[in-house]
């Protein structure tokens, strides 16, 4: 068990190591020379870390954006009642999560080998959080005070995760092919459900001829064709408006937030954050190109030797370079829809929805790209609105009904689209297999 936990923590819990080993294995199986093997492995690992650095920059910028708009609207976190919290939960079930994740990955590889679904899920950090949230739902369903059979819990969770990591990329792949124009990559991310819904909405209600990347602009506005410029412009407007409203509102917490600007004016500070966000996107796009350039050729070695025709299922940013403008159209649409759901949820069920901008951005941007692939601008907008709807209502149902006694605090920021949609199914399975647990 200690070996398995070590592998879970140091291999599957460190996706950069996992990616590097897979590329190394693929190149060795293709009998590449030492120079090609070393270069390909290192560049793939560096590309993956560049993506993380870019994503970290985006996240840091959003850490100002979210509390700023939360303060403008006077949002406070919902009272969650009595619950374990993640620290207590992980101290009791951390080993279960790690082992279920490890066995789930092996089941994913096995299913890819013996079924027509040739997808290997490589988004390590989402593997951990999805397993943790599903474990939280199962323990909540069974009861936090009872002694659960841990090996049964590990095996049931592992099968669920292995099946999910195999089928999620398979279900979204028809639309993924439209996004990237080939069958080389798959989407391996918990935004799969909203990406799928965005693609379907674009197909049914959109017009793919009106592509976001081909929008016609007046000659004097041609700078808007540059995705880096349009991202900085749109985010700059949102940051400046939010900062101005915050400074005028005098809302509780406003002074503390503005103090984070130090000696800078808060408007100037916000503009810098907007440009940091745009820079983070540019870094992510560069890292994705570098990773794909090494991973896809190396993966052919695994595909031909271990899992014939296998395809790597990768993190959401892998689709961003194919439609950068659609990522912003999706995000802005989701942001606007989130504000509407904020009011509706408060009035209808007295729940204070906390729109987690990291989830909103990465999921809505992905859904926007998928929606654009089938329905152009209208499809990208639908993708964003659908994402906001799933996240808003999903957060409410998850926190209040699915894991209220275990880790509702974690679910408010770590749970996202697929977890919200599959949550009731996991609860149902926990009840069905209760006799084994």
UniProtKB/TrEMBL annotation:
The lineage of its organism: Bacteria, Bacillati, Bacillota, Bacilli, Bacillales. The chain crosses the membrane at residues 12-29, 41-62, 93-112, 119-139, 151-167, 229-254, 266-292, 313-333, 339-365, 377-399, 419-436. The phosphoenolpyruvate-dependent sugar phosphotransferase system (sugar PTS), a major carbohydrate active transport system, catalyzes the phosphorylation of incoming sugar substrates concomitantly with their translocation across the cell membrane. The enzyme II UlaABC PTS system is involved in ascorbate transport. Belongs to the UlaA family. Keywords: Cell membrane, Membrane, Phosphotransferase system, Sugar transport, Transmembrane, Transmembrane helix, Transport. InterPro entries: Ascorbate-PTS_EIIC, PTS_sugar-sp_permease. The keyword Repressor does not apply. The keyword Transmembrane helix applies. Homodimer. It is found in: Cell membrane. This is Ascorbate-specific PTS system EIIC component. It is a multi-pass membrane protein. One of its GO terms (biological process) is phosphoenolpyruvate-dependent sugar phosphotransferase system. GO terms for cellular component: plasma membrane. It comes from Novibacillus thermophilus.
């Amino acid at each position: 068990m200690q070996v398995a936990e070590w592998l879970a923590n140091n291999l599957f819990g460190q996706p950069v190591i996992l990616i590097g080993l897979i590329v190394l294995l693929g190149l060795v199986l293709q009998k590449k020379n030492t120079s090609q093997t070393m270069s390909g492995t290192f560049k793939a690992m560096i590309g993956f870390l560049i993506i993380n650095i870019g994503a970290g920059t985006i996240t840091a910028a959003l850490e100002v954006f979210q509390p700023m708009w939360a303060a403008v609207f006077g949002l406070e976190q919902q009272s969650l009642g009595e619950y374990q919290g993640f620290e207590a939960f992980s101290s009791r079930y951390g080993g279960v999560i790690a082992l279920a994740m490890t066995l789930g990955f092996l089941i994913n590889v096995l299913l890819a080998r013996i079924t027509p679904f040739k997808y290997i899920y490589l988004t390590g950090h989402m593997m951990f959080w999805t397993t943790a949230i599903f474990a939280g739902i199962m323990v909540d369903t069974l009861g936090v005070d009872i002694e659960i059979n841990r090996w049964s819990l590990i095996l049931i969770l592992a099968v669920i995760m292995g099946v999910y990591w195999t089928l999620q990329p398979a279900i979204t792949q028809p639309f993924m092919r439209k996004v990237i124009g080939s069958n080389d990559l798959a989407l391996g991310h918990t935004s799969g459900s909203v990406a799928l819904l965005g693609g379907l909405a674009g197909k049914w209600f959109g017009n793919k001829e009106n592509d976001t990347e081909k929008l016609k602009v007046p000659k004097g506005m041609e700078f808007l064709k540059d995705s880096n410029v349009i991202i900085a412009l749109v985010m700059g407007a949102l940051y400046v408006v939010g900062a101005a409203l915050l400074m005028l509102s005098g809302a509780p917490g406003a002074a503390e937030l503005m103090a984070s600007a130090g000696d800078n004016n808060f408007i100037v500070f916000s503009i810098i954050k907007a440009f940091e966000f745009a820079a983070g996107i540019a870094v992510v796009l560069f890292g994705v190109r570098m990773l794909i350039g090494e991973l896809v050729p190396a993966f052919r070695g695994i595909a031909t030797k271990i899992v014939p025709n296998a395809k790597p299922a990768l993190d959401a940013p892998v689709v961003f370079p194919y439609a950068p403008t659609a990522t912003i159209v999706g995000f802005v649409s989701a942001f606007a829809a989130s504000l509407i759901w904020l009011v509706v949820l408060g009035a209808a069920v007295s729940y204070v929805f906390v729109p987690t901008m990291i989830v909103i951005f990465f999921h809505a941007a992905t859904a926007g790209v998928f929606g654009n692939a089938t329905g152009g601008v209208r499809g990208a907008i639908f993708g964003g609105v659908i994402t906001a709807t799933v996240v808003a209502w999903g957060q409410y149902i998850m926190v209040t009904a699915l894991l209220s006694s275990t880790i509702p605090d974690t679910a408010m920021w770590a749970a996202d689209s697929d977890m919200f949609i599959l949550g009731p199914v996991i609860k149902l399975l926990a009840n069905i297999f209760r006799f084994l647990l």
